[in-house]
Design a protein that fits this description.
This protein has helices spanning about 5-10, 45-55, 70-75, 90, 120-125, 140-145, 155-165, 175-180, 210-225, 230-235, 275-310, 315-330, 335-350, 360-385, 390-400, 405-435, 445-455, 460-490; strands at about 20-25, 35, 40, 60-65, 80, 95, 100-110, 130-135, 150-155, 170-175, 190-200, 205. It is α/β, with parallel strands linked by helices.
Length: about 500
């Protein structure tokens, strides 16, 4: 809320308590985003400013992650949420929606050279075809209802960028405003088929805030009547024939009736029972377990040569090993994953290379975590090797053993005994760090929990089951670590 508007409201009458509006600016065009010259802009920003004038009440913005808007609203972190929130029957059980301010539809976007299909039905019939979408969105529910393989992204920016790169997904299915903002002007992408599955955007309030919701509804009615709402939508090239349903005199159809939007294609009333979400959690747990094993295996394969290079290599090799270790210990894993997932394919495309560097989300996560943890395990190996006294080498040499044989049979087993506690702690840490992989569209256990909990709003119930699955997987790791430590302890030998 700018200071001039606040001052005007103060001069015109009695000061009213400011309202707090929450939305996510990250990847938020055309809803709300930052412009390098104009600051915070978007068609929802304009609607909020118009609402503040109609109500004579300041409305202050609060940055909040999109996927946590409903939980944050219920918690009471702000007065209302407005960020392209789709009205669904499931959400109606937890929040009170205003009257709609935009009629959205879904749009499939594909690469320009795509020849296998040109519609959502064609995508469904194409073996192995994958559609990108956002978690807990109506587009995701529609893909599930149609039985189409999906990949979840944290924001539309990543989804359309991944589609443009090619090799990982075959289309993006999201709300039309997102398609207009991110895909319409990209020469590599085209719209496939006509927009479908109508629905409504509305402001969300806590169920107990009925008075506030009615006040906002009154303001929205005025914006429809005086043409301000239409003016804003026209300004952002969002006005089409569907928006006529927002005008005065139109009777909003009840959700679930034929033609009323996505609810006519999705069974929103299907209860979120363990039978429905437990298989998905188990699937996520399996991905987490595999990712842990592959990442740590890669880390160990790289770690020992790195440690030996630092200790016994020529000067240039020692320096290279040191640079490697300090580099991968010094950069955030999330930055590394983004570079591997988006940066490498972008470099290949910019250089005109014919070889595709577009790795799968699982491969990127395994490589990124493996590279990061290899730096730590290299130091564990080095400290373990250095803990073995020089007399061990001398004794082996006196028996005629070569250095390679001495290292393999005498030094390394003792070094492992010293390094094992630190390595097992790192293994457990890696097991929990796999949750970072969701940033590159990999749905592991933690990401599956977020998707299910935010869709059903059963944070406690699903959270307890997820915690139990983490314990079921991590406790055996601890037991294995203790067993190995006992096996290699001097008292057991």
């Amino acid at each position: 809320m700018n200071s001039a508007l606040v001052l005007l409201l103060l001069l015109c009458g009695e000061e009213k308590k400011p309202l707090t509006w929450a939305a996510d600016q990250e990847g938020g065009a055309p809803y709300i985003f930052l412009d390098k010259k104009l600051g915070r802009v978007g068609f929802e920003v304009d609607i909020i400013a118009a609402l503040a004038r109609e109500l004579g009440r300041p409305i202050e913005f609060k940055q909040y992650p999109f996927d946590n808007l409903i939980p944050g609203l219920i918690k009471g972190d702000f007065d209302f949420a407005m960020n392209g929130l789709e009205v669904t029957e499931e959400r109606k059980k937890s929040v009170r929606f205003s009257t709609p301010y935009y009629v959205y539809r879904q749009q499939l976007v594909i690469r320009k050279e795509e020849k296998r299909f040109g519609t959502l039905l064609g995508l469904k019939k194409t073996p192995g075809a994958v559609a990108g979408t956002l978690e807990a969105s109506q587009a995701e529910r529609l893909l599930d209802a149609a039985g189409i393989i999906k990949r979840i992204y944290p924001s539309p920016t990543e989804a359309y960028a991944d589609l443009a790169i090619g090799g990982r997904i075959d289309g993006v299915f999201l709300d039309l405003p997102m398609a207009l903002s991110y895909a319409q002007n990209d020469p590599r992408l085209v719209f496939a088929g006509k927009p479908t599955a109508r629905g409504f955007y509305a402001l969300a309030f806590r169920l107990k805030d009925e008075a506030l919701a009615k006040e906002i509804d009154t303001g929205l009615d005025r914006l429809r009547s005086n043409g301000k709402l239409r003016e804003i939508l026209v300004k952002w090239d969002l006005w089409d024939e569907s928006q006529e349903q927002l005008m005065p005199g139109f009777l909003f159809e009840e959700e679930g009736k034929p033609g009323a939007g996505p609810q006519s294609l999705i069974d929103e009333n299907q209860s979120w029972t363990p039978r429905r979400y437990l298989p998905l959690l188990l699937e996520g747990a399996w991905v987490t377990a595999q990712l842990t094993v592959w990442s740590f295996a890669l880390a160990l394969i790289l770690a020992l040569p790195l440690a030996l290079a630092r200790m016994h290599g020529p000067g240039w090799l020692k320096n290279l090993a040191l640079i490697y270790i300090e580099f991968f210990r010094g950069i955030p894993v999330l930055l590394l994953l983004f570079f591997l997932y988006f940066g490498l394919p972008g470099i290949a495309e910019a250089c005109g290379w014919k070889v595709s560097l577009a790795l799968s989300p699982f491969a990127v996560a395994a490589i990124g975590l493996g590279l990061n943890y290899s730096a730590y395990e290299a130091e564990n190996f080095r400290s373990g090797i250095q803990s073995v006294g020089a007399g061990q080498w001398e004794a082996a040499a006196s028996l005629g053993m070569g250095r390679a044989t001495t290292f393999r049979r005498i030094i390394l087993p003792q070094a492992m005994r010293s390094a094992l506690p630190s390595m097992t702690n790192d293994l457990v840490g890696l097991f929990k760090d796999t949750s970072i992989a969701s940033a590159v569209a990999l749905v592991e256990l933690n990401k599956q929990y977020q998707i299910l909990a935010k869709s059903s709003l059963k944070f406690v119930e699903i959270g307890l089951i997820t915690a139990a699955l983490y314990l079921i997987l991590s406790v055996p790791l601890g037991r294995l670590a203790r067993a190995l430590e006992n096996k290699f302890s001097p008292e057991k030998r």
